[in-house]
Amino acid sequence: MRHVERVVVLALDGVYPFELGIPSRILGAADGRYEVLTCTVDGGPVRSNADFSITVEHGPEVLRTADTVVIPAITPSSVTEELPAEVAAALALIRPGARLVSICTGAFVLAAAGLLEGRRATTHWQLADQFRRTYPEVDLDPDVLFVDDGTILTSAGAASGVDICLHILRKDHGSELANSVARRCVVPPWRDGGQAQYIEQPVPDPVATSTAATRVWALARLGDPLTLADLAGHARMSLRTFARRFQGEVGLSPGRWLIQQRVTRARHLLESSELSVDQIAGEVGFATGTSLRQHLHAAIGVSPQAYRRTFHATR
To answer: Which residues form the HTH araC/xylS-type domain (predicted)?
Structure first.
């Protein structure tokens, strides 16, 4: 019988309705693999940051049964350096070993509970200075969409909650199911956790030429030894202009973006095919299997063989 993971979302006063609904919308669309429950610290309604309150079906007791606990964003004015007693009591109910996830300012709650000490984490870039002043013992990276630090995962603002839930789904059940859920929810299936939170020019100037068509062109040719000159030539731009515009639109250099896309394609092939590591390396544009191993380890910390074993075990 297939194990159904219980995910409990803890709604605190000042919760953002959008972020509160993300776990249910994403993980709840995963063909019954997750049961998503929402609770409050006392079972009563909570004030949202919008013009309405939210009533839930559960009190804090369900936290004892959670495999994963999600702390969604709360309005910055609700953030306190020390946890209110009722919040601390609720968090104390979480069993050891449960996975903890925060969205945006939810990281402040985890940090106030002492759960992020010595760990790498992220939160919304606008609150990075406040977070560092309050919790200097946390290794904060305010430039990324999310951080996976094993049993504790933290994400940046708003839509990065979608990214981290898809990451959890991909990690637990592989990319095919994650991509299927993303299609159902009409969201991008993959944004790397290391992608920049804030991109200076996410929409090109109306008089400028976008690099989007070149990115589509490159994705269809990942197996080729693409260079910056190839990309700039396709976009009909100088090397300097293309590199600057690409960085402004994507938040990554062309070279880093290519590596990211190749690693993503390699992960899919490791999960869904019986090709050897050297064959996959050739399919996605890495010169050798050794190069693939190095880039995959840098991205997710495991070897191709270990990644494939984990995926097949999960399946």
So the answer is: 212-310
Widest Cα–Cα separation across the chain: 61
My answer on whether 77 and 147 are in the same domain is yes
Using an 8 Å Cβ cutoff, are 44 and 15 in contact? no
Task: Tell me: do 248 and 147 sit in the same domain.
Answer: no
* Residue (of 120, 23, 102, 21) closest to 94 by Cα position: 102
Query: What would the pLDDT profile of 22-45 be if each residue is shown by its tens digit?
Result: 999 999 999 999 999 999 999 999
Q: CA–CA separation, 60 vs 160, rounded Å?
A: 26
Domain that holds residue 53: 5-185
Q: Is the separation of the CB atoms in 121 and 154 below 8 Å?
A: yes
Q: Pick the last residue of a domain from 185, 216, 232.
A: 185
Helical segments of the chain, H only = 17-27, 85-91, 106-112, 128-134, 160-173, 175-185, 212-219, 228-235, 239-250, 254-272, 277-284, 289-300, 304-314
> How far is it, in rounded angstroms, from Cα 189 to Cα 158?
16
**Tokens, residue 146:** 């999310």
Say how far apart CA 132 and CA 218 lie, in whole Å.
39
For 209-257, write each residue's pLDDT tens digit.
789 899 999 999 999 999 999 999 999 999 999 999 999 888 889 999 9
Distance CA 199, CA 122 (A): 16
Task: Report the CATH number at residue 97.
Answer: 3.40.50.880
Dist CA 165 CA 193 (whole Å): 11
DSSP β-ladder status, 99-103 and 152-155: parallel
Same domain as 40, residue 173: yes
Which residues 6+ apart lie within 8 Å of 1 measured at CB? none
Is 292 contained in some domain?
Answer: yes
